[in-house]
Amino acid sequence: MTVPSGSTADPWPIRPLLAALVDDTSLLQPKATAPGVDAVVSRYLAARDGHYGGLVGRLVCPASQLPAVVTELARSAPSRPADLALVVDTGLGAVPKALSTVFSRSSLLTPSTVECAAPPDVDGVWLERVSEFVPDEVTAVVEPRRPLDGEPEGTAAWLEAVRKVAEHGCTPKIRMGGPRASDVPTVDEVHSFLETSLEHGKGGLSAQGLDRIVRDSEETDSDRGRHGLVNLIVAVARMTGVSASPAPAKDALHSTDRESLARELDELPSPAVERVRAVLPRCGVDPEPVPVADLVALGLLD
Fold this sequence. Notes:
Elements: E1 22-24, H1 37-48, E2 56-62, H2 66-76, E3 82-87, H3 95-104, E4 109-118, H4 124-133, E5 139-144, H5 152-168, E6 171-175, H6 187-200, E7 206-210, H7 229-239, H8 249-254, H9 258-266, H10 270-279, E8 283-285, H11 292-297
Parallel strand pairs: 1-2, 1-8, 2-3, 3-4, 4-5, 5-6, 6-7, 7-8
Helix pairs in contact: 1-2, 5-6, 7-9
């Protein structure tokens, strides 16, 4: 279910736990299945200006598609600028020009993050180069590439890269889904990513590729099954010590108990919600960027 379109809709209040949480990552889908830029921009603006618009976060845009997005936004004449997550897919050298385009179109776009993949041998020199390209008012998000074979040595190297990114002051990013089964990390890998990011980082973390709200009860592989948005939020709440539940964070990542997970979030006090959102400010959810029906069913949206 998508959000009703139309900029004249009266927005419904969104609880702080979910405010501006869900990014539209449609433009990152494989070219063979991705909708056109015109369709993505139209849907994003309709969702953002609809009844549940307070749930909508950023429009995630590869740098290579930025000109087309700018053209479509100009044609659409939005009521206010779109919050933009710029994904570097054409090399770090293209970042200054892309940001110049964004800043020169302030009536259409507001830059929020610049996101890029880290090389396997990421080090302080490369991270410093990223920081030089990204202005202070924009958050640098870096995704160390997780090894797909799950070998202990490769996993250890990946977590070391996550640690370096976090210690440098950039936001570490994990891809939690994709078109292939190997794109989905195990529960252990997600848990280790959260632990490493929170132990060494000064800010938050980023997750992309979630394709459901709660882990599916029909998953046959309890460790490799696809992850849920609510599972991730509860895991962060437990790992940061703000949840009243004594259960481990890893149990939250495994859980398929929709009602119990939703109730745990519903009972978080305001300071706990602020802490959770400081750690997890945005999430990319596919293929429905605004999963209203599922959140309403869980009582997390009215």
